[in-house]
Amino acid sequence: MSDKVTSLNQHLAPIFDLQAAAAVLSWDQQVNMPEQGTEARSNQLATLTSMAHELFTSDETRKLLEAAESEVANLDYGGDAASTVRVIRRSFDKETKIPTTLVERETRAASQGFVAWRKARETDTFATFEPHLQELIDLQVERAGHLGYTEHPYDALLDQYEPDMTTAQVEALFGELKEGLVPLVREIAAQPEVNDDFLSLTYDDQKQWDFTLLLLRDIGYDFKRGRQDRAPHPFTTEFSSADVRVTTRIHPGAPQSAIFSSVHEGGHALYEQGSPEAFDRTALAGGATLGLHESQSRLWENQVARSLPFWYHYYPILQAFFPDQLSSISLTTFHHAINKVQPSLIRVEADEVTYNLHIFVRFELEKALVTGELKVADVPDAWNARYEEYLGITPPNDALGCLQDIHWSHGMVGYFPTYTLGNLISAQLYEQALAGMPDLEENYTQGEFEPLLSWLRDRIHKHGRKFTAPELLEREFNTQISAQPLLTYLRKKYSELYKL
Amino acid sequence: MSDKVTSLNQHLAPIFDLQAAAAVLSWDQQVNMPEQGTEARSNQLATLTSMAHELFTSDETRKLLEAAESEVANLDYGGDAASTVRVIRRSFDKETKIPTTLVERETRAASQGFVAWRKARETDTFATFEPHLQELIDLQVERAGHLGYTEHPYDALLDQYEPDMTTAQVEALFGELKEGLVPLVREIAAQPEVNDDFLSLTYDDQKQWDFTLLLLRDIGYDFKRGRQDRAPHPFTTEFSSADVRVTTRIHPGAPQSAIFSSVHEGGHALYEQGSPEAFDRTALAGGATLGLHESQSRLWENQVARSLPFWYHYYPILQAFFPDQLSSISLTTFHHAINKVQPSLIRVEADEVTYNLHIFVRFELEKALVTGELKVADVPDAWNARYEEYLGITPPNDALGCLQDIHWSHGMVGYFPTYTLGNLISAQLYEQALAGMPDLEENYTQGEFEPLLSWLRDRIHKHGRKFTAPELLEREFNTQISAQPLLTYLRKKYSELYKL
């Protein structure tokens, strides 16, 4: 690494320490913190975040960055030095474009917005949240103005979460996906209902926990560099590649919740544990975009852990954990039950097939909100109309409708599409993996995932944060993000399951 | 509060946030962190600590402090404003007297010293630690020179942990205490040995845990503002008065370990939870000196939880938890067993009577080391000779002798005396509490501790960090630190127990 890039890295390392410290405090808040610790914790997090921001956007950073840029100007951006500089430049430009006063107003609005949203959801009164949502949207429009865009203000917001992707590109992908999904959902709905009553029996908490640990270990999650805890809303967080933590939730009457939460978060965690040690405390450490991150969690959750070969191995083990509940249930019945397709109201509980329809609703509403085409007051009606159109059901109230997600209350607009981008990429990657390793899934019947993990390490994880999603697909697979692999995968899998 | 003091407080609040964040990271390291997380965590802690130090010792702090001082010059130092300024001045002078280069050398020496100490203890080779101990002592002598002292270099080191106390004062107190303790230990040794075999049976881990939670709840520890976890070396830590956490350890073959660890740490925690909310994020927050802190933990552990009235209430409950182990053991036998006096090699396992003898050894050696009277190479012999003299036993090796404690490996010299000062103060406070509430201990027979806790809140906790130990005793009780109350308490209690 060149001297100037090294100087830049040394300057930034303490800033990454501050961010990692904030991540520890946030993890603790969600996993351990006593209920009255909130106020002090907010102050601590605000201090760490604003110090990190101040140091990162300083003139010192600018000078070191410019010096480093002149040194790597003629190098390929795939190399560590040039890539480091490029990744830092992208963040630096974004963070310095936003005035501190805007960040402060956003923070205050989100803090109040979150409280109002929680109350609105509890009491099912959209009106309670409405003025806050208006302010939060206005602030995002302002943010988009500062960030800059050529075609659509949503481009600027989306770019924060999924750099290099535009609204027009996402529209095209989602349009293609919708065209394939809507008829598939309709065909499935015409089939007899799947029996999954046995999933509502009572499954011992501790045994569920032990089973998730077994799965995490088997897929390759390294407990010497991580741990699992419980959290109401499962998430993954990392403080270095050697300390990557997952969380799960356990519902006694729904064992699939813990199983797929753990494997999903495990997928995120494998990505972070696969970030090269040499990248620790640099801008290259960790996973790249949100879409790429979600591609990893979804691949392990869906393509792997909802597959039949996977359950050839694990279903007998699960039956041994829960003989009373499962000994009379066949593998086929179980496998179909955990892949039951049913249009429903809540995104986070949706199956693989209908999940993306939930995202389309949010994406379309967000776009219309930031251009002003849709008024905040009309969100409930617009939401419900689209649920009726895409999923054939109408939310009975706003709590189960447009108030269900936390994102807007935090001012996060442009985030939702990355979930579906992750689903698309997961299918593309899996198609590539199978093309290179036709017998890949036979490993699963032995509880063996090393070949898949090695492949992901080599093609995705080892790059850390170097590339955007389009760049990575181009460089590694000479392809672009596409909807066809997901449609092909879903059509094949569910035609077999539902005998379409 | 005056404007200038408010400005000073506002300037310092983010520094306290950084310190609290470091405390969270340190708690996490001891309670949760996966084994390979160490390196990243060290970097994160070093960054937080050095940023806090840099901000605290800045010219900005100096200016704000001087401005605030001129405003409070004529106020009594007991008031919030004047006390804040005084406490900050004390820390500021100490922290600015030590050159950054010395702190860096100390940090490096401690880091290497700790590794060498651990290895020396494992392999029982003092020689492995010897050069490191030499360096660590040399650095402490250098530190004492920077801090300044008039009589004894040890004064400067002691003052870091127990401000306002001098080596000469401690010598006088310890001398008096030793004169009373040595004959008491001899008299007890002449009595028949106490039966405590039943404490070595197997006690279920989870039940022990549940019993400690019950005790913590009953003594008044607020779980909405704290939690208990496990740690190999129990400790208490606080991130605000609303987030004060304790830890304990559980040995299946020694239930008293968890019980007294939890109550001991609970005593520390009650002190921190009793710090006024208004002091949060200011220099007045928390407990005052180490000696005062230890007085709180020891008072709850010894005067309360090792008393007979306490076990009138809790022994039947403990028997219900462990009927197989305890149903045939009488309260008298149990109470005597948990108060068994026996000279032993390890400080942290020592009983109330012999504990302070362990401290005398360390205090005397530390004094002689910093003046050069004692050579580092001669530490093992000096240690063993004193154990023979004070406790009548000679360590069979250095691992069980002078290598047993972690303190010196971290460069902490001057810390040990605060344990005994805490014991002295606990007895003084308890004597005062009993004088004011003669029926106090009857409450314990009902599992009722509110009167004692209220009294401690009112006389000790509410002052936060305002006063040093001598100041607090003077202001609240018009007295000085003294050895007599502890001697009186021990003589009375153990005369009854051992029928002396």
Short structural description:
The structure is a homodimer of 500-residue chains. Chain A has 500 residues and is an all-alpha fold.
Question: Can you give keywords for this protein?
Answer:
homodimer, globular, three-stranded mixed β-sheet, 500 residues, mainly alpha
Write the layout of secondary structure elements.
2 copies of one chain form a homodimer.
Chain A (H helix, E strand, L loop, with lengths): L2 H29 L6 H19 L2 H14 L7 H18 L2 H24 L2 H22 L5 H9 L5 H23 L15 H15 L8 E3 L5 E5 L2 E6 L6 H19 L16 H15 L3 H14 L1 H4 L4 H7 L17 H17 L7 H13 L25 H20 L3 H5 L5 H10 L9 H9 L6 H15 L2
Parallel strand pairs in A: 1-3
Antiparallel strand pairs in A: 2-3
Helix pairs in contact in A: 1-2, 1-3, 3-4, 5-6, 6-7, 8-21, 9-10, 10-11, 11-17, 12-14, 15-16, 15-17, 17-21
Account of the protein in words:
Two copies of one chain form a homodimer. In chain A, strand 2 (236-240) and strand 3 form a beta hairpin. Chain A is mainly alpha-helical and 500 residues long. Chain A is globular, with a radius of gyration of 23 Å. Chain A is built from 21 helices and three strands. The first copy, chain A, has helices at residues 3-31, 38-56, 59-72, 80-97, 100-123, 126-147, 153-161, 167-189, 205-219, 255-273, 290-304, 308-321, 323-326, 331-337, 355-371, 379-391, 417-436, 440-444, 450-459, 469-477, 484-498; strands at residues 228-230, 236-240, 243-248. The model of chain A has no long low-confidence stretch (mean pLDDT 96). A three-stranded mixed beta sheet of chain A has the order 1-3-2. Helices cover 64% and strands 3% of the residues of chain A. Chain A starts with a helix and ends with a helix. In chain A, helix 6 crosses helix 7 (153-161) and helix 15 (355-371) packs antiparallel against helix 16 (379-391).
